Amino acid sequence: MSDPAPRPATPPDARIDHAASLRYWNSVPANANVMLGMLGQYPWYTRIDLRGSRTFLQKVRRLIPDCPTEGKLGRGVDCGAGVGRVTEGLLAHVCTTVDAVEPVDQFLQIIRDSTLKRDGVVGDLYPLGLEHWRPDKRYDLIWTQFCVGHLTDAQLAAYLVRCREALTPTGVLVVKENQSTDPRGEDMFDAEDSSVTRTDEKFRKLFSESGLVLVASELQVGFPRNFRLLPVRFYALRPV
Ligand SMILES: C[S@@+](CC[C@H](N)C(=O)[O-])C[C@H]1O[C@@H](n2cnc3c(N)ncnc32)[C@H](O)[C@@H]1O
């Protein structure tokens, strides 16, 4: 058996360049089809993804003592919201009010102009990267999907601590992210959007170091195998 490839000298997250990420996302056209660009040109992907999220959240609500299992939660926030795909397809159905955090203004503008914003379902909008966001209120649900790869490990740990402190007594933080398939078990750097894809082990280490405990974790199922997409994992987290 040949030796495994040498470990990279520079940790993958040290290569993250926020300016390069923002340049990349600003180059993605912010129109109604923007999610196709964000999610690999597969229109069916988002249907499967959102259905999986609804089912996962329903299970999680039953696992949290005193969390209402029926009806809407109070305030949620869509972190790294893009054009509001998750806000519209999930959070607006399960929360009375949904805030959104997103650093790319052309994406946030779509949320600003949406019917959900006019109807008051979408609440406060924060034009910030998650590394700069300081929650100024408490949330019943903090949803963070397909965006923490833009944060370094240290920034992600600090973000997780802030989220932990911003949860209501029955609140929950959900992180839903791609998983590294690197054969050496390393996080993977992607130069295209200057992000890292982390291993399950790395996520669990950062959660535990941030004073969070896993209420539930599972893989998203239902994506056709022939597309060889990265595995996607949900983590539902609460303060230790
Ligand atoms: C793959 S898209 C996911 C959007 C949305 N969460 C979804 O699932 O539809 C990645 C998003 O992360 C945003 N992003 C880039 N850098 C970020 C940062 N530092 N903090 C938060 N979001 C960031 C991008 O602008 C983009 O909207």
Automatic annotation (TrEMBL):
Q: Which residue spans traverse the membrane?
A: none
Under catalytic activity, the entry for this protein gives: N-terminal L-prolyl-L-prolyl-L-lysyl-[protein] + 2 S-adenosyl-L-methionine = N-terminal N,N-dimethyl-L-prolyl-L-prolyl-L-lysyl-[protein] + 2 S-adenosyl-L-homocysteine + 2 H(+); N-terminal L-alanyl-L-prolyl-L-lysyl-[protein] + 3 S-adenosyl-L-methionine = N-terminal N,N,N-trimethyl-L-alanyl-L-prolyl-L-lysyl-[protein] + 3 S-adenosyl-L-homocysteine + 3 H(+); N-terminal L-seryl-L-prolyl-L-lysyl-[protein] + 3 S-adenosyl-L-methionine = N-terminal N,N,N-trimethyl-L-seryl-L-prolyl-L-lysyl-[protein] + 3 S-adenosyl-L-homocysteine + 3 H(+)
EC number, UniProt record: 2.1.1.244
Q: Name one GO molecular function term.
A: N-terminal protein N-methyltransferase activity
List keywords of the entry alphabetically: Methyltransferase, S-adenosyl-L-methionine, Transferase
CDD domains attached here? AdoMet_MTases
Family assignment from sequence similarity: Belongs to the methyltransferase superfamily. NTM1 family.
What protein am I looking at? Answer: Alpha N-terminal protein methyltransferase 1
